[in-house]
Amino acid sequence: MRASDLGRWASLVVPTLVSLAASATLLVDYTRPIPLFCAPGGGCDAVKRTAFAYVLHIPTPAFGVAMFLALGVLSLLRGPKVRMVQLVLAIVAAFVSLGLLAVQLKIGHFCPYCVVSDVSALVLVLAVASRQSTAWDPPEGRLALVPSFLLTAAVVVPAALPLVVKPKAPQLIVDENAKSPRGVVTIVDFVDFECPWCRENHKALAPLVEEHKSQVRVVRKQVPLMGIHPHAWDAALAAVCGENMGKGDAIAEALFSVEVSNLTTDGCEKIAAAAGLDLAAFRTCVKDPATAARVSIEKEAFKSIGGRGLPLLFIGPKRIDGANDRPILEAALLEAMH
Predict the structure, then answer these.
(1) Is-contact 205 332, C-beta < 8 A?
(2) How far does CA 272 lie from the centroid of its chain?
(3) What stretch of H or E contains 179?
């Protein structure tokens, strides 16, 4: 193969491989409960929260993988129709990439894998346009097997990495696990006591915790969603004060059990009194700015680890999103115990 042919082929294949590998890497993280490549709370997570992260409930990176794989295959084929189809696809990919870069600029967060894929797509459209204008086609022969192998590897390698690389839990979870004695599983529960799904999750989790209470330590992080749950803030303050006064589990159980309409200031005081807390001390705690500050800090912690909705549990290092029934929670707990 002539050096000029090799250079033209490289100008097509290299940006395609880069975009394909970056899209495949993102797709792995989009389809996993715990990201393997992107740090929770980072730029990737911020982009994942936008309306552009999914199209018809399909992760946007899936479309990227399909698009760049098609462009890569077209780089190996010959003929005017092939060149025209490749040019059209490359232009579409470039426009989409420009739009996604604009979205990241607008939200002030940049996903490194997205940026790599999008910039490579812009480089690729120039190479494809050059191919079209010069009517260049790749030489025939066995050498085409090399880019074919590379295109396959760009998809297979990111997809296979989760089989051999274990995702690292967020540092907050690592720190909480480190506080538990050896042989004790830490459950970090991000809660809103007014959230109906949190309540359902608690009904499934509480019996498991009771059955294995000598082997489990429960840590609750308050995430009151005041915009949709008007009593969640009062309940969160009550939960923090109950914990500070040595009745955290009892107060949390009561807050989960009462009717939502009773999660008012007066209702929380009745719960505290029923649990045997000194009511004057409880009221002082609830009004203490430090209590509100703790709740705010825990809400920010929820965002920093990539929390997107409640319920959210970590059983050991394993992240569990959404309401789950007992078999799922029990399986995760037994796995953490062993």
Answers:
(1) no
(2) 36
(3) helix 171-179
Give the CATH number of domain 171-337; options: 3.40.30.10, 3.30.470.20, 3.60.15.10, 3.40.1190.10. 3.40.30.10
Q: Are residues 301 and 172 in contact, defined by beta-carbon separation less than 8 angstroms?
A: yes
Q: Name the nearest CA neighbour of 301 among 181, 166, 189, 167.
A: 189
Identify any residues that bridge with 185 across adjacent strands, giving them in sequence order.
Answer: 216
Give 3-164's CATH code, choosing from 1.20.1440.130, 3.40.605.10, 1.25.40.10, 3.20.20.70. Answer: 1.20.1440.130
pLDDT of residue 2: 67
Nearest by Cα to 316 from 248, 206, 207, 215:
215
Strands of the sheet with 312-315, listed across from one edge: 216-222, 185-191, 312-315, 318-321
Q: Is 338 exposed, middle or buried (0-12, 13-18, 19+ CB in 10 A)?
A: exposed
Assign residue 168 a region (left: φ > 0; alpha: ψ between -120 and 50; beta: otherwise): beta
Taking the alpha carbons at both ends of the chain, their separation in whole angstroms is 57
User: Which three-class secondary structure state does DSSP give residue 313?
Assistant: strand
pTM: 0.63
**CB distance 113 to 22 below 8 Å:** yes
CA distances to 66, 120, 138, 207, 208 from 327, in Å: 36, 45, 56, 12, 10
**Mapping DSSP to helix (H, G, I), strand (E, B) and coil, where does residue 165 land?**
coil
Give pLDDT tens digits for 110-169. 999 999 999 999 999 999 999 999 999 888 766 667 788 888 999 999 988 888 777 777
Give the pLDDT mean for 31-50. Answer: 77
How is 91-140 classified by DSSP, letter by letter? Answer: HHHHHHHHHHHHHHHHHT---HHHHHHHHHHHHHHHHHHHHHHHT--PPP
Banded model confidence at residue 98, pLDDT cuts 50, 70, 90: very high
Looking up tokens 């979205």 gives 103
What is the DSSP annotation of 61-94? HHHHHHHHHHHHHHHH--SHHHHHHHHHHHHHHH
Sort strands 185-191 and 216-222 into parallel, antiparallel or unpaired. parallel
